[in-house]
Amino acid sequence: METNNKTLINFYKNLGKLYYAIASADKKVEDQERNTLKEIVKKHWLNVDVFKGANQIDAAYQIEIIFDWLNNENKIDAKTCFKQFIAYKDEQKHLFTNKIKRLILKTASEIAHAFSGINKSELIMLAKLDMALKKP
Fold this sequence. Notes:
mainly alpha; 7 helices
């Protein structure tokens, strides 16, 4: 399926919300969580090739931009960001291939483990994410 730049940017913005929700589930975003996100974006998200016809590399940086904006502005809580991501996923099911779902879960898990292992809030959110991504 051909994906335009606006669709792609919205996809990555919503991933930024999700990853902010994971990192801030315990009410504080640690530097290690932010650094882990940056590494994963560079290592994995810039190379995702399932979106055809759009400027992949520039759009993928929206993950970091939105994550940082939410972290600095802190006007939206983790639960709200998580719910917004799930609503987006449910509206745009065609973007969520099995490959993308696996990468989303891998990224979320690595962010959660980045600082002192995974805590209860993050574990609950990861479990909800896993269930939401398995839902058709």
